Amino acid sequence: MIVTATTTDPLTAADRCDRCGAQAYVRVVMPSGQLLFCAHHAREHAPKFTALATHVQDETDRLLAEHGAGAGAVR
Ligand SMILES: [Zn+2]
Asked: Strands of 26-30's sheet, edge to edge?
């Protein structure tokens, strides 16, 4: 995987969670590169990456907007 310079482009359907391959809604930029997470894994890994991240782009609000507030209960 080629990690390009820090970018804050909006996440798209082509951006996939590094853990499970679901659509990514959170981009974590770190000095060593960046990670993409779905909402589920962003929550799961937040305690680890927040200490390292230089920037966290959280678009999980968009997930709720697209799927309805009720979808937020899915785990
Ligand atoms: Zn995931």
From this structure: 33-37, 26-30, 55-58
